[in-house]
Design a protein that fits this description.
The protein is about 25% helix and about 35% strand. The chain is built from 7 helices and 11 strands. About 35% of the residues are buried. The structure holds S-adenosylmethionine.
Length: about 240
Amino acid sequence: MADFDHWAEIYSAWTAMAQDDPAEIEFYQRLAGAADGPVADLGIGVGRLAAKLDPQVGVDVSEAMLAEARTRLGPGIRLIRADLAACELPEPAALQYCGQNTLNHLSRRSVPEALRCAFRNARPGGRLAFEVVQPRPERQKARDGVPRLRVWDEGRAIYEITRMLDKQGLEAELVGLVERLDGDRRVVERGYFPPIRFCFLTMAEVADWAEAAGWQVEGAYAGFTGRPLAPESSTAVWCLRRPPR
Ligand SMILES: C[S@@+](CC[C@H](N)C(=O)[O-])C[C@H]1O[C@@H](n2cnc3c(N)ncnc32)[C@H](O)[C@@H]1O
């Protein structure tokens, strides 16, 4: 069972509650609109982005996430259960995108493998776009072990707790805490979801790994509004391109 299988239920709940960032959707929609061939969602999760972008293929390692995605997206999309570090797409993609920190959930050793794998799955001229979280040790220290409320509905409260695993702020684990509530919103049961890994990725690491895999960097931004990326930015949005033949 993949770690994320345990999280599918709560991930669906907080995806349903969270507001989509219009700049994120527009960024990926623009790339999907420019794609002259198949589009693949890498780490599709419950289909949050796919519901807006309509890719032909979705990949995820978690059976439970794929089941949620199937329910949400219907039969029109091909869903593949595979690890992003070793997956083969049915045909070369014009665009692969990997939304919302998915690459941060791979081990640091697997990220370069995933970039190489996506390169092999890309058409000449094809793109890979993704968002990752960069290390910011001071901020992470302030949040270390502090529960953050992510879902609050009639029957439950769901918190995410980040625990730092090193001083440099490169490795962390996320723990889910679910409280079941009665009609008066008193806690009647409490449970923890098993931890999932989170490895913060620096700008230099991503640039080196992308280049070693054969990608050209088309754009690197601090978030989805196009500000230039810096080592201290919290979110990095990358757009890579396989050189045209
Ligand atoms: C944070 S969720 C993001 C889901 C989706 N990309 C989105 O933007 O909503 C990360 C997803 O990546 C998947 N995942 C984590 N590690 C993976 C791996 N090594 N290979 C394939 N999928 C993976 C998880 O199962 C989960 O569905």
